[in-house]
Amino acid sequence: MGVKTVTAKQIEVQRIVDALSKAIAQHRLPPGMRLIEAQIVDALQANRNHVQVALQRLAMQKIVSIEPNRGAMVAQPSAREAREIFTARRAIERAIVESITPQTMRKHRQRIAQHMESERKATGSTDRRAIVRELSDFHLMLGEICGNSVLADLLANLMVRSSLIVALYQRNDHPPCASDEHQDIVTALEEGDQGRAVAVMIEHLDELEGQLALEEPAPPEVNLKQALADL
């Protein structure tokens, strides 16, 4: 079987996908915002056909929604979908943590240390966008160093969708993550205590979900007779 060649179009489409995903994950593009193709073409200096393919790919990943006569917009996950995403994150991030050994931690020691320093600086600032970026990148980093590319890809999608959930449902304006808990996970993994690392991660995700107001809004009470009167 020959080596599959990556085309220039595929590379360009992926660049657009990555740029839009990053902007959404960092809350630069809020849930429900219309994604006008011409503006994306101009902002990213991209081909319109490539932008259309990228939006379709993001729609398949449920990061973007595309509606007839309205075009593409940043997805707005329902409360039920939010709960399901956190259930999925618990499963995926448990598997990721369980696969990281002390040897893995030593191999990536410099990268981990650099990230934790960046995270501490961000959380000590008032730059909410930087805080969101660094705290999210911790989870993505664990996915990347665990050695399982399937788990890493699944987590990357869930993290972008989680950012939409935070933007829609977070109860307050505090960052949706805590750096101290991240350090506890790192320390446990360095010591080879995967059980404790998993426990801290699950507790951490439980706390994140607990910060969200995931009650479905009650349907408005409408008198059908009055609504149809004089029609």
CATH topology (fold) name of the largest domain:
Four Helix Bundle (Hemerythrin (Met), subunit A)
What percent of the residues sit in helical stretches (DSSP H or I)? 55-70%
Largest sheet: 3 strands, antiparallel
Using the alpha-carbon principal axes, give the shape. globular
Give structural notes.
66% of the residues lie in helices and 4% in strands. The chain starts with 7 loop residues before the first helix and ends with a helix. The model has no long low-confidence stretch (mean pLDDT 89). It has two domains: 8-74, Arc Repressor Mutant, subunit A (Orthogonal Bundle); 79-210, Four Helix Bundle (Hemerythrin (Met), subunit A) (Up-down Bundle). Strands 1-3-2 form a three-stranded antiparallel beta sheet. With 231 residues, the chain is mainly alpha-helical. The protein is globular, with a radius of gyration of 20 Å. The chain is built from eleven helices and three strands.
List the defining traits of the structure above:
single chain; 231 residues; mainly alpha; Arc Repressor Mutant, subunit A; Four Helix Bundle (Hemerythrin (Met), subunit A); three-stranded antiparallel β-sheet; 3 strands; 66% helix; globular; Tscrpt_reg_HTH_GntR; GntR family transcriptional regulator; transcription regulation; WH-like_DNA-bd_sf; DNA-binding
